[in-house]
Amino acid sequence: MSNLLGWVTPDGELRYLGSHESTLMLATGKQLPDIPESEWQEFDLRGDSKYPVKIKDQNGKGACNGHAAASSLEIARYVSGAAYVALSPWLVYADLCNGWDVGSNIAEALVYLENKGTCSEPLVPYATINPARIPASARSDAKRFKVEIGYRLNTFNDLCIAAQLRMPFNFSVPVNANFNVLDKDGVPGNRAGMHNHAVTGGVGMKRLPSGKWAILMQNSWGTQWGWNGYCWITERNVEGRGWDAYCVSATVADPSNLPPILA
Amino acid sequence: MIGLLIAVLLAQQPVPSTLVPPAAEERVVFSHAGFTYFVGKSSGSVIAVEQGGVRPVPPPVPDEDETKPEPVSGIKWFSVVVDESKPEQQAWRTDPEIRKLLESRGIQYRSYTAEEVDIDRLGFRTTVGQIGLPTVILQDQAGKIVKSVSPKTKADIIQLVEVIK
Question: Is B110's Cβ below 8 Å from some Cβ in A?
Fold first, then answer.
């Protein structure tokens, strides 16, 4: 645990920041479509009364990447029309950290989700990080829930385009100074710095009164943090070193939830 | 040879002049008591036309039913494949109205971008290539394609859903 930076949220909970600067840069081989800002539209998936994705809580562990990855897959499954299944962040993190709570990085977590998937949440007890304690049923179930990694996102503009494409994404933010303090628009007061926390985006987008665009960020610190677990991120909030971001789509690996395959 | 001589002789005859009346005489036009009067300035001829009596014939109004898609039945899966570079199509993917309509009919909704590997996994690639983007694929319980179309707008999709029995 000594490798992780602790962060106390307004509700007095200690959270650990476990996103490392990635040495792995995925070459997706695809060019993100260029959608001009003039075509961007505000949206918020939570406006659908049946939007099912819930805020997760990594409380006490540096498992932000496992949580961001599982949340992205849940959102991608919603976008694809698949039935909601709460997915386990702990299977991903346990295998990535191998029982040592030292954090991980975004690219590793998504590659894991692409190759092995993650299981439904009840199959792995909360806060399990020892891979030896992962039941075999969880590993088997994980084959049903996988992602396809879409594009590497290199700028805030790319994050906005991915949101417009309804492709959820994992991205890194610098948690420092006034990250817990949101202004009247729901934007954190953090400053440029080392990116040390992985979160999820793609749930919504809006134009602030200032005219700047903001993306809706889904955190994994419970619903007590921010605005019911969410905040709005502007370009200023993601300045700094250690940037990492990829968008994903869900795959139809779940045979119980599969449109019939054409002959 | 004789024919050629006749043609030459005819060509040499003078063309008779003919008096052609002017196509339209200059007229005075006025309206009175529900009629419009056209009075020729030189001839003095009068033409009276009842006002409103000559109306343009409106083009035939298309039957609304002709623009609606043919009713389809036995649909279990409704898949929308969008062009991922078109935000307006992407917005259909999470449109609550479309989802609610399909759910009320017991139809499973799925959406994809054309670039996803799932399009190949599901065997949709050929249909998408033939129909073009966006593509809506309607399948029955067994997976047989009942209908595939390329909607232009969200309204087209709604209309398609509404004719599913």
Answer: yes
Which residues in chain A are contacts of B90 at CB distance < 8 A?
A: 164-166
For chain A, say whether B116 makes contact (Cβ under 8 Å): yes
How would CATH label the architecture of B75-162?
A: 3-Layer(aba) Sandwich (3.40)
List the single residue in A165, A251, A260 with the smallest CB-CB distance to B90: A165
Cβ atoms of residues A257 and A210 within 8 Å? no
Estimate to the nearest angstrom the gap between the alpha carbon of A223 and the chain centroid: 15
Q: pTM for this structure?
A: 0.81
Residue-wise pLDDT for A49-94, tens only, equals 999 999 999 987 999 999 999 999 999 999 999 999 999 999 999 9
Residue A156 in contact with residue A37, Cβ under 8 Å? Answer: no
Q: Which CATH superfamily is domain A36-250 in?
A: Cysteine proteinases (3.90.70.10)
Q: Domain locations in chain B? A: 26-50, 75-162
Q: How many CB atoms lie within 10 A of CB A73?
A: 30
Number of A/B CB contacts below 8 angstroms equals 81
Per-residue pLDDT tens over the stretch A149-201: 999 999 999 999 999 999 999 999 999 989 999 999 999 999 999 999 999 99
